[in-house]
Amino acid sequence: MKEALNWWQEKVVYQIYPRSFCDFNGDGIGDIKGIISKLDYLKQLGIGIIWLSPMYVSPKADNGYDIADYYNIDPQYGTMADMEELIEKAKAKGLKIILDLVVNHTSDEHKYFIESMDKASPYRDYYIWRQGKRGGKAPPNNWTSFFGGKAWSKDSKSGEWYLHLFSPKQPDLNWHNPKVVQMVREIMRFWLDKGIAGFRCDVINLIYKTSLADGKKRLILTGSEHYLTQDGCHKTLADLRQTVLNEYDCFTVGETVFITPMQARKLCGTNPKELDMVFNFEHMEVDQFIVKWFKRKFKPEKLINVLDKWQNQLDWNALYLENHDQPRSVSRFGNNAYWDESAKMLGTLLLTLRGTPYIFQGQEIGMTNFDFTDMSQIQDVESHNIYNVLKKLPITKRKRWKMIKRTSRDNARTPMQWDGGAGAGFTAGTPWIGINSNHSYINVAAQNKLSDSVLEYYKKLIKLRSEIPALRHGTYTRIAAPAGVYCYERILNGERYIIVLNMTAKKSKFNIDFKSEIIASNYSNKDYNKNILLPYYAMIIKPKI
Ligand code: ISL
Ligand code: CA
């Protein structure tokens, strides 16, 4: 049977958080020239698509997720010429690039927002300005922001309030205004014409606010029933597809928070076409209690059930265990005492499920959560806001720090560990955020030399995935296994592969009762006992018929 997959279903994506990837000019901040210098590394890793987190002009109140100018590169990262060089050099190596499209909000330093502060300006209606309640003293409604606190800020000049679902420096755009839709169409065309291959669409299911009425009071995100995945959002996405995306050979992946499988199916459906894939967050919630700052013990069975559910519910998933907003997967779902085994086990999981896998920079060498010891080392706006919110609760300072430490987005944002030197090979200067001291042994240079390193294992698996069609688009079926062991098969045209993952530190009895060939494992063949799975055992098996 002929494979009829789209190219974005055949390749592995690698997410770069530019600020922390590679600093070429020594100012402590990663940059475009740094990325260019690592294209060979990415090519050798075997990935086919690069997703770049934002590098547009920005005051960086949220590290670039607050864009002041969509048409220019922030000087901290380089120039437009650098960006064009990156696109060209990547293309020459057969690597596609997708960009982050952040259009739920702009920066408050975007020229249109500055204009909009004038009540009479034609740009007023690009944003969501309203009279406050109680004679303007209270916000227009009771909505709360993703980063804690009110979702509205008041501007003293006009006396009105503007909506921001994130920080006050990220005012929400008004998607009811056709001119806003047109603005975004033009931004998309501008970058697609420069040769990029699509977009990761930031919080795209929040863009359309159906009403601004008070929301039902909730522990988090009061008001969200008025803007999560609304009909208006579906319509807008279908419009962008028809008026722009259809003309290009590109794909979009939506960052979609709090979605149900049914909503995801519609967002990824074909009638009409909206997005190509979505990131859902349900598997990121398995170790938390209502909000992410309240952690609960990680139970592998929960993760397995959620992953299995989405495998069954969606034809094609955007697969990920990490991104720039999440703690490191090996620190979260793995185990320090079995760092090597668990990092490889998680890699096996990511690269053998059905969908397009997304690797976050550093995941391929098993980077861990940061080793910061206090709040002064944290840069993330979300962590600081939540820390302040927590101050209002009866929680000790120690406990407060513990909550931030385990959940802070900065866990993913410490510099990429290229080597064991002072700047980790990331920078010759002073890094903008602390480098994890474990870079002395967890780094690319060291792992390049070892044939059984986490890095070499990732390379091997990416290669296997590219060589074996069944691992890419074979059917997925879960196979019954003991608690904490995830087992599934992938079948295509009679070719069958079985993946066995012990997600616990316990030995597990599991009899794989057939003649089989292990084609990849994080243990050596001599450790293989068909009745016992050692801690974090991972293997891909090809049963012999
Ligand atoms: O971190 C989160 C999930 O645990 C969320 O609160 C996260 O902020 C949310 O998923 C939205 O993320 C995206 O939009 C934000 C930006 O700060 C994030 O970096 C981005 O990925 C606003 O643009
Ligand atoms: Ca730099």
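The pocket of 6-O-alpha-D-glucopyranosyl-D-fructose (ligand 1) is lined by residues 62, 65, 102, 146, 166, 202-203, 255, 257, 292, 324-325, 409 (CB under 6 Å).
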